[in-house]
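Entry type: protein chain
Record version: 2
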Amino acid sequence: MQPAYRELGIILSNQVRRRFQEVEAFHHSIVRNRRRFLDEEISELTARLAERRTERARLGEEQAAAAPTRRRRRSGSTDVPPAGPRPRASGPGALRHRYDAAQTLESSSRQITAKRIELQQAVETDLDEREQQTREATLLFSRFAQALYGPR
């Protein structure tokens, strides 16, 4: 900022330059803290989404494991299937389950993308507002310096 004052022929005292540097450092710390806060928010949201995906997968496995039991109960069958890996379910019910799971996953993906865009827009808006505040502070500072030291 000082080169701009030099070009205008304004000579700033050391005290004024020091205050200006303090204000500039303060604004930089605000922006740095805001970015850190938003990064933490993104990390927390990402972790929560990962937990939800894991929970959804676990519930899907439980539902798939319970499906043959429910079918046997409805049909009145008392046979217990042998232990070990089960054959993959097929047919309209399994396809419907897979379709529903895919729809849920797609919906979650859209929500993640929307939240990411929302957070990016919030960061950009915040930075724009801070830039405007910095410009206004600089202009006020310039006016005060001219009032104190006169135009040069």
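Comment: The chain has a mean pLDDT of 78.
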